Every structure is written in C-alpha cells, then in structure tokens.
Amino acid sequence: MRIKPRLQNIVRPLVENRFLLSLGLSVACGIVFTSSFPLNTASQFLRLIELERPPVFRAIVWSYGLFLYSTPFLACSMIFSLLYVHLYRSDRDMAAGALPPYPDPRTRADLSLVIGEVHRQLVPAPSPGPRWLSISERGLYTGIAAFGSIGSGKTYGLILPAMRQLFAYHADDPERKLSGIVLEVKGDLCRQLQRILKWCGRERDYVEVSLDGDIRYNPLNNSLDPYAQAFNIASIITSIWGKGKEPFWQQSYTDLVRYVILLHRIRDGYLTMVDLFRTVISAGALESMLVEVGARFSTTSYIGIGRDAYQIYETLLSPLGFEWNKDVDLYLIVWTEALEDLLTQETSATFDILTRKLHPLEQRQRFESIDYWYWEHWKFFRSEVKTSIIQGIAVFLSLFETDPDVRRVFCPPKDLYEGKPCADDPHGRVLPPFEALIETGAVVGLNFPVALNPALAKTIGTMMKIDYQRAVQLRIPKMDKYPTRHFRPTVFICDEYQNFATVGADNPTGDERWLSLSRQPKCIPIVATQSVSSLKDALPNEGVKTLLQALRNKVFLTTTDPETARYASELCGKADRTRISYTVSESSNNANVGWLSGRTSSSKGSVSASKQYQKHKEPLFEEKVFFDLKNAQSVVVAFDGVSPLPPTYCYLKPDFLPVTMSWFEQERIGFDPERIQA
C-alpha cells in the first residue's frame, strides 16, 4: 500500500516516540480521571469492607487509582500499535539510498556491462543500499536477450547503454577496443551508434552499409559453401512467404540455386544476386553457360607463346585472339593447322603445342556434377514444374533487379572487388571481409529501415548476420593455433531480433547453433525482441525453445503477451513459502429454536479454533508482475559466467538520463530529460 509522504511525516514521529507519548497521555488522563471520578469511600459497602477487611479495602483503593492511569496507557499503546502496523513506513523502507559510484566505461579495467540498479530482490520498492547489477566478461559471452512490449524501454534502456559501455571499453587502444555489428529495422539506431562512437572517440571505426552510402556489400561474395548459401536463400524465401506442406519446393529451390552459384563460381569466380536472377529466369542462359564452361574442360590442343615473344609480334598475334593463361604462364589460342602454318611462315618465334587440361581437377569434378545434374535431372522436369520452381525463386531475387539503388549497393561489379576503377560506380568501396573487420576493431552498422522494403531488409540483414557469424566461428581454429595472442571481443547487437532470427532443426546455419559456439570466439550477442510470440511467428516453435535456452542472460520488461509472462515466471523459478490457514468450529448440545427470537440456542456449547502451517511452492514472480512493470523497470535473470544469479527486480538506466539519479527519483519527475536537466 502506497502512503502519501505528507501523511508519513505526521505518522512517523508519533510511532517512533509512541512509548513516551503513551506514558504522557496516560498521566494526563489519570490526573483528569482522578479529579473527575474520585473513589466514593463513603459508600456503605466500602466502609463495611474497611471495617471487616482493611487490607482488601486498601487494595481496592490503590487498584482503582492505578487503573485510572494504566487503562489510558494501554489504550494509547494499542492506538499507536495500529498506526505502526498499518500506516508507518520506516526511512529504510521509504527512501532510496544513494547509488554507488557509476564505473565510467572509458576507464574500466575489466570488461563488464552494467544492466541497471538493484534495490530489493522481490519487492518493487526503494532500498537504502542499492547496488549496480553488473555482468562480467565471462557472463557477457553467454548472450543477453531482452523482451518488452512497445515503449517498454528496450532500445533506450538496454541497447543504447550496452553500446555506450562496450564500445567505450579501451576505446583508445587499437589492440583491445571491441569490434561489432549492429542490425536494426527502425532507421535511427545507426544514427545513435554514430553519436556513441563519436562520444568515445571512435568515429573512424564506424562502417555503415546503406542505400545512400559509398560502401558496397555483395552477400554472395564469400567462401561460404554454395549449398549453405542456397539453403539460406531458400530459408529466407520460406520465412517471408511461408512454408508449404510439401517439402519438394524448398528442396528444389535449394538445388537449383546451389548449382547455379557453383557454375558461376567456376566460370567467373564471382556472382551477384542479379547474376543469379538472370541465370535462373532465362530458359537458355543456364544451358548456354554449361556449354561455355564445358568447352573449357574439353581436351583441346593449344598453341602457347611466351611473354617476350608475344610482345615482339604483338601487332600480328593480338588480332588472332591469344589470351594469357596464368596456370602455364603462356599466351594461348586453340590450335589449328592453318594457324600453325601462319606462325611458322610469318614469325621466327618459338611456340609450343599443348594438349592438356588447363583447369584444376577439383573444378573439373565440380563441373561434371553440375553437368550431370542438369542433363540427367533438371532436363526431365516438366515445363510447368520448372516454371513453379523458377517463379518461387524469381520473386525473391527480383528484389535486387528492380531497384537501381539496391543493385548498386548489394550487386557491385567484380572490378570493385579486384581493386580496379569502375566507371559505373566511381565512388564505390567494397565492404572488407568480416574476418578483417573484426580483427581491426571496426563497427559495422546496417542502416536499411524495414519501412523501405520489408522483404529486402530481412534478406540483407539475415545474410549479413550469417556472414558475420561465419567469420566469428572461423576465429576458433585461429585462437587455438595462437594461444598467446590477444583476440579482441566482438559484439553482435540486433534490435527487433524477430526480423532477422533464423533457427530450426533443418537449418544448418541456425542462430542457436552459432550461439552455442559464440562464447569460445569471444562474441557478445545482445538481442531485443517484443515477445516470445513474435519469435514463434518467425520461427518454428521447437526452434524458439532451443534459441532461448542458448541466451543465458534475460531481461524482462513490461509485456502484454501472456506467453512471455508465463515463460518469464517459469524461468524465475519457485520458492518454498508458508501458508497459514485458520479453522473455527462451534458445536452445541440440546439445541432448540427460540419462540421469540427465532434463533437457535443451546444449553451447552463449545467453540474451537485451530491454526495450520503448510509449506508449498510458489513462483518468485507471478505472471501478473510482468504485466504491471513500469517503464524501464524489469526483472532480470542473469548469469555471471560461473553461476546463475537470483532473479531480481532491476531498474534500467535509459541512455538519455543521468546514471547518478535513482530510478525512483526519475519516476517522480516522469522520465522527462528536460525536467531532469532543469
């Protein structure tokens, strides 16, 4: 029960001095009663007692005087006791004590994250000895998940303070500062990230991928296996448009995209989403590409000329179509008898006739598998089946074809990756591999608001996340190979995580698999989502359970989702509590009904009362608690890397409010930054 401070100021001195007040009031009342109601010693009955039993008479006189003082004392004590029980709140209960000094993230000796302030574990009330709830470095590697409805304070209460603390750690040390990636869907988080990096002197470490920037990112240009890339694309298609009951279609998507990616890599060593789209949608492009690549692997005779001889007769040889082959260090052209006679008659250059396979055996074997798939499998599909498969992929891939800005940013030409000038994009710069970005301390932000194109934002964010996760996992063998080398921690931050989550028993690159391995390569995952239900809408139900158990630290803000409240209450656990029950029973003999009163009565009766104590399990936090949480007020289930911490109320520190002010002080002024600064 909340008591107004003004009433507390009246009640507190009365209760704290209740003994002296009771004693004074009883003396005053006794004096008044003695003068107003003196004992009538002239009563014949008392005079008889005085004559017959003088000691009894004196006892009556003294006890009468005593009762005139003791009775008011007992009455006053009872009144003050009722005030103490029902209205009094001590200073220890009412006032929040001063917070301990906040550790400046720029000067912290050890890596840690302060979640918020803790007062009382199970009661949302101030404490005279508050403390900071801090998660150590080992605990951070086990992941943090925040759940909260719209406006509960996930971004300003957890995401922004986490970025400020983590990216400010050793900000001036090139070898120890943290790297990371930030994914968002709102459109303002990257702007906040820039401000934070500027505040800690790291504005040069920021790399932003956006439609209006000069950074180019090709999600297909990496060393990821073609099957894994194809499966990721098929999984994104399924998550956007839903999964049918027949698995044939998703398997066909994956199969077709896999072989097309592999064929482009063999032919060009490079491909984009636009190349993939145009090859898939064209009926003759795939077959013509197979024929072209197959010609390279045929056993053909070539005429080879060295570099020096070619430069001497370049005027004659260049129009003939000689091409430099780095595998044999010669200029090559397909042998013909006429060409051999021409070179013999017109030049004195020495040339070789080569009959060999100029491509590595591994590439040839891959091409043979593609060739066999196409002619023995794909060719036998009916045209309507092929159309359905191609249409399912084309709808997704066309997102990169129709928008020129998207094509420019996410489908850059190969020349940019080879470091050559590109006339179509003179200011473009490719995003370095995530392996290099992580080790150099860069912070990557994907600024692609979901409002621009929800499907495309989900696609780019998911593929960039997978690319980053692969780079993180590749650190494990490096860390094992160089045990004495310092590897900087890296941070993965994702707001509105339900838009980018990928998980499932049939997904080889699910987030739960990566989270189970992210501790060893020193990655700090921090995600925020609205509810458990929002994750279930984007992921299979069983996959959600696996994903949530991989994140050891959980922050529950106010929610309107019953499933989230139920999950949080169960996660916080139960405790033994004593339940007291009272039983009152009445029994009577010879009962009868009165003629006048109409009530039952008896000549003999008895009344009995019993009190029982029972221990039982009750949740530490009922489900209703999570519906009643206020802004920036949370229940945290934390893990310090060694042992779990008890669930507790925790009050987050919004990034726009001073950390030295208690949450209860901020609540009184309504979390208004202008009023706080005033």
From TrEMBL:
Domain TraD/TraG TraM recognition site: 489-621
Compartments reported by the entry: Cell membrane
Pfam families per record: TraG-D_C (PF12696)
Membrane topology reported for the UniProt record: Multi-pass membrane protein
Protein name per UniProt: TraD/TraG TraM recognition site domain-containing protein
Cell membrane listed as a keyword: yes
Database matches in PROSITE patterns: PROKAR_LIPOPROTEIN
Chain segments annotated as transmembrane: 20-39, 59-85
GO cellular component term, pick one: plasma membrane
Keyword terms: Cell membrane, Membrane, Transmembrane, Transmembrane helix
Top-level lineage group: Bacteria
UniProt keyword Phosphoprotein present: no
